[in-house]
Amino acid sequence: MPRAFSRSLREVAFFFGITFFVILAAFPFYWMVITAFKPNSDLYDVTNVPFWFNEPPTLEHLTYLFKETLFARWLLNSLMIGVCVTMITLVTAVPAGYSLARMTSRKGEALGIAIFLTYLVPPTLLFLPLSRIIAELGLQNSMWSLVLVYPTFTIPFCSWLLMGFFKALPPEIEEAAIVDGCSLFGAFIKMAIPLSLPAILTVVIFTFTLTLQEFVYALTFVSSSSQKPVTLGVSTDLIRGDVFFWGEIMAGALIAAVPVAVAYNLFLDRFISGITGGAIK
């Protein structure tokens, strides 16, 4: 009986602990949904309970976003920036991670750590020299400046991540492919890349998410509304002086956050496999 009681107590404690963290994680999405569909008369009435609808929901905030602002253009800009940065990161980080993983001396590990340390440099220290480069290239006030700048922090981390995963792949696989007639590059394409798809998918999700949520560089290099990504457009064009358009802000945040949340849930197993694969294979 004491053992059964102790087991039941642990199960109850585990259940309440999981419930607490689920509520903590889901509450921001719930708050965005509530605020995005509340009419202003309900939203700004301090006598109403803020946690549910006191009046019928409305679509006026979504209508305002798509008709009175450049929200659709901001979404398109973010998508284009994310796709371009992801492609640049993959083309650079995949061969870099593979090369570092196949270095037999300690120089490869030291070089990998040095590359990762560049990821830890705060953006507030880098945007001054980067702004000089952007000015020299004539990319001021253009979203293409972000395509140039964002790989400076996505490539180091992704190269380090892929290096750990490629180290977990036995080199005998590529050696066997070379014996069968493949070149070194052919063995890399036909053997290493297919076996590393979980890690590559992790890099894609991580890079796209990081570019979607970045704010400091976007605020520094882009000022025209037509060139802004969604994070910058929502947080600047929907705040005018001391007036916050909370309904529209939350609607924009909800639309930008839902696709990322869905992608993470659909590819969660592969994402975890890519993050931890280098440690357990």
Helix content: over 70%
CATH architecture of the largest domain: Orthogonal Bundle
Number of strands: 2
List segments where confidence is low: pLDDT < 50 over at least 5 consecutive residues. Answer: none
Number of domain units: 2
Gyration radius, rounded: 24 Å
Shape: globular
Q: In CATH, what is the homologous superfamily of the largest domain?
A: MetI-like
Total helical segments: 15
CATH topology of the largest domain, by name, is MetI-like fold
Structural class: mainly alpha
Q: Largest sheet, if any?
A: 2 strands, antiparallel
Strand order of the largest sheet: 1-2
**Quick one: CATH class of the largest domain?**
Mainly Alpha
Q: Tell me, rounded to a whole number, the average pLDDT.
A: 82
Q: Which series of helices and strands comes N to C?
A: HHHHHHHHHHHHHEEHH
N/C terminus separation: 42 Å
User: In percent terms, what proportion of residues is strand?
Assistant: under 5%
Main location: membrane
Transmembrane segments: 12-33, 74-98, 110-130, 142-163, 243-267
Subcellular location: Cell membrane
Family: Belongs to the binding-protein-dependent transport system permease family.
Strand-helix topology:
Layout: H1 2-36, H2 40-43, H3 60-68, H4 71-102, H5 106-119, H6 123-137, H7 144-149, H8 151-168, H9 171-179, H10 184-195, H11 197-213, H12 216-221, H13 230-237, E1 239-240, E2 243-244, H14 246-266, H15 268-280
Antiparallel strand pairs: 1-2
Helix pairs in contact: 1-14, 3-14, 4-5, 4-8, 4-11, 4-13, 5-8, 8-11, 8-15, 9-10, 11-15, 13-14
Transmembrane segments: 12-33, 74-98, 110-130, 142-163, 243-267
Protein name: Carbohydrate ABC transporter permease
Main location: membrane
